[in-house]
Amino acid sequence: MEWCVSMPKVELHAHLNGSVRNSTLFELARVLGEKGVIVFSDVENVIMKDDRTLHEVFKLFDLIHILTTDHSTITRITKEVIEDFASENVVYLELRTTPKRNDSIGMSKRSYMDAVMEGLRAVSSVDVDYCPTGLKTDTVNGTTRKKIYVRFLLSIDRRESTEAAMETVKLALEMRDLGVVGIDLSGNPIVGNWATFLPALKFAREQGLYITLHCGEVPNQEEIKAMIDFLPHRIGHACCFDMENWRRLKSAKIPVEICLTSNIRTETISSIDIHHFVDLYKAKHPLALCTDDFGVFSTSLSREYGLAASAFSLGKTEMFQLAENAIDFIFADDGVKEDLRATFEAAVEKLD
Ligand code: 6MZ
Q: How far is the CA of 109 from the centre of ligand 1 (A)?
């Protein structure tokens, strides 16, 4: 485990509000409990529950959003999430979040994202590079400070309308200079229709944004086929594919973001030894290990690597290679890729 922590890692599938520390959620719940907005003990029981079906996870997100969705809390959790990833040697983080509008507290999708950006700028434990133009890293006494690259994906929630999805894409375009590189489609997979989001996703791609889709969390083969035909730059999960769609995925070589603990906890995959990671890994299909929601699922990226190592008998060399290969699938530019490759090369010499 220690070795998995010290190895540099790339995180490509992390939802901001799923990555909030439990301690922070409790603190926020206590404050709202005192104000009489919620009943603290009810919230405590929900947060502490370990195993949740996919359906229960989305109920939990509604609760988390009650606790977190004001500007100052969004700023706080963004800062904490970036610092938590950096503390376990994640050197490149693609953080995704759903911009939320809440007229009652004067929140627009833009002001939500401004609060996220403020949280990023408040990070103090590590240098953060988030602009496409790059950050000049300070050298103090001859040693370069630890650095993390952060890029953002704006999520479209499957509950949203075509217009709301389009608003998110336009916001992403507006915020390109601030490190927004793409669009994610997520939310409860049994809600909404592919056709609703397609116009916004097409527009996003035409404008040069990268696209990743939550695909196959439930066995909706028609939607899975339509998603593969769209040829997104990556997909997340890929759990419930039939043989035909599996064949399509493999021949299209679409990189897959694999979230082991999330899939097991939500019972999307019944047991780790039959996880589709094995098939993809053996076929040398592009893939990356990711956390999904490290707070909700009590995991970390290092733990995900540890889990893969023990479940699939991967050695240190294989794990390191797996982490390094993820560089190929990031949505940042070639300069970032080169810098990350150099970081991994330097790390090889230090790790035993
Ligand atoms: C689908 C998920 C998800 O955007 O509020 N989200 N969508 N499948 C999953 N697998 C378990 N985990 C998280 O982060 C929370 C939101 O991310 C999506 C859901 O829409 C959830 O409300 P943000 O920062």
A: 16
pLDDT tens, position by position, 167-202: 999 999 999 999 999 999 999 999 999 999 999 999
Contact status, residue 305 vs residue 323, Cβ threshold 8 Å: yes
Domain boundaries, the chain: 2-18+68-350
Residue 17, Ramachandran bin (φ over 0: left; ψ between -120 and 50: alpha; else beta):
alpha
**CATH no. for 2-18+68-350:** 3.20.20.140
With a 6 A CB cut-off, is 184 part of the ligand 1 pocket?
A: no
Of 239, 221, 219, the C-alpha closest to 280 is 239
Mean of all residue pLDDT scores within the chain = 94
Instruction: Note whether 228 and 248 are within 8 A (CB).
Output: yes
DSSP string covering 241-259: --HHHHHHHHHHT--EEE-
Give the Cα separation of 214 and 184 in Å (integer): 7
Residue 142 has a pLDDT of 55
Residue nearest to atom 19 of ligand 1 (CA): 187
The H or E element spanning position 61 is helix 54-68
Token pair 């401004």 in the structure block, residue: 114
Q: Which residue has the higher pLDDT, 142 or 230?
A: 230
Classified as helix, coil or strand, 147 is strand
ipTM over 0.90: yes
> Is residue 167 annotated as a catalytic residue, yes or no?
no
**Alpha carbon separation from 240 to 127, 147, 170, 192, 221 (Å, rounded):** 39, 37, 32, 18, 8
